[in-house]
Amino acid sequence: MKAYLLFALKRFIQLLAVIFAGCSIAFVVSHLSPISPVESIIGRVSGQSSYSPEAIASLRATLTELFGLNVPLHEQYFNFLRRLVSFDFGPSLLAFPRPAMQLVMLALPWTFGLLTVSTLLTWLLGNIAGGLAGYYQNSRALKALGIVAIGLQPIPYYIVAFLMVIIFGFLWPVLPISGGFAMNVRPAFTPEFIFSILHYSILPAASLTIVGIGTWFLGMRALVSNIVTEDYVTFAELGGVGRNRIAFSYVIRNAMVPQLTSLAMTLGGIFSGTIITEQVFGYPGLGSLLVTAVNGGDSATTLAVSCIAVIAVASAIFIIDLVHPLIDPRVRTE
Amino acid sequence: MFAVLRDLVRYNVEFTIGAILVAVIVIFACLSFFSPVDPTQVYLAIPDQPPGAQYWFGSNSRGQDMFWQLSFAFRNTLTFGLTVALLSRIISIAVGLAAGYLGGWVDRVLMFINDIFVAIPIFPILILFYFVMRSNLNGFTLALVMACFGWPYDARLIRSVTLGLRHREFTRQAVFAGMSPAKIMLEEHLPYVMPIIFATTMANMIWSIGLEVTLAVLGFTNINIPTVGTTLYWANNHSAMVVGVWWWILIPVIIVVLLFIGLFLLAVSLNEYIDPRSRLRRMGA
Question: Which ipTM did the prediction report?
């Protein structure tokens, strides 16, 4: 138990370091900008009607203070870190004066739900199919699945999503291709609303699954075809243990462990894919918010989404790392 | 070197297919050097012509001959992918060799940084870069930024190989012969790591080109430079699928998918070749 706590503590320090580094990079990048957010608001306001120079000067002073730009850069950075603890990123430009964090909190559940379901589904399906394909190497169906996986795997995500929109939007319109839920359903905790959410999430989730499944399938098949040659598998076969039992509790269980580690390592990439999914399918999540914010020149929201993305991905990796010893006893004893 | 290539072609169908696919696309991209048209100009050809004798790949709604347009697009995309791969290889080789050979606190510090970079989601950061630089974001800057994020997986891989090399006889002899650590890493260990570097270069190119396409499709790069992504961006911008100009989207998609499959097959077959067990199984020994 003590070893586990020490391990958890180490991982926690790493989590803090990742969040610190990621948010710092985001801060530095967003403050390289030659376009000042203050000037862009003033440009927008003064473009609509004419104001006296004094009014514009006082507006500029107020906005500079509001965005915290009236102090030197290193102080801005410390302010940013201090406010990061309470998730305060300042007011957004698009929905002024709503805090950027409020917009993020509205979008976060959509992304979180879509990502969790599709990632778990992809990981489990890919690994089980890959494990079976590695164990039953003569099965024709599984071999065919392997060829499909090799063909699908290198196709960039965007193209798959786009093809699905074309197929289900134009050629065979059976599924909704855009939005998070039906227009005529009131967002409330009712069966209709939940059903609508599920109905609208089929395509985005399916596209994420189709793209991701190949990697897990191929990785698992390679791992399992190595494990199959180990002595303990031969021994179990000679001992008369059932084939399916060997496949699931002897072979796949052992091969799951490295796959869990690589799940943690690819989460960042999976998150990138979600941004495209949301953009293609018009899903109201973090990705759509990020794209809207960038196009609208909203620096506070852009920074907020980036930081929340870093924090969310790092925390997910942290949780996977904590689960790891429970599955792999060898890590537990270390 | 030639013996390796000959073996690969003879015993590995995947390698041959991959090499042919990539070679054809590279030749296609190189044709742009002889292009009669300037890819940044619009309305030089009759718009919306389907593929035919005059315009082999058709022409788009912006009045551009798609054949030459795509040739430029693939040249830029390939150059981009190669730049990212080369730059990130330099970082991953330096980090991997140093962490693996020097060990101790150097290893711990480098791997700590490595783990941080693995965990940072790169896409929001890239979008932030676009947000800041807007159309000043040219291909090389983007490549540089992506190279700074594209090294950690491969650095870890190289480190794991070097860890094994460190305790080999020849390393000890080199140390006793008075070679400096830098020299041992570069002259003794680097050749062992080279095959992995080739294989990861392909994988890295798939990764960086995929990201570039994604960014460009959303309009988050300089959309006036023809690349595969910006071609798709303009096609979407003119609603090519709805209007019925299908070749504007379909042809670049097919070629880029072929490129990905080619690079993927090269990476997989090189990986197989590196592992002596799977190499021997394939050669039937």
Answer: 0.78
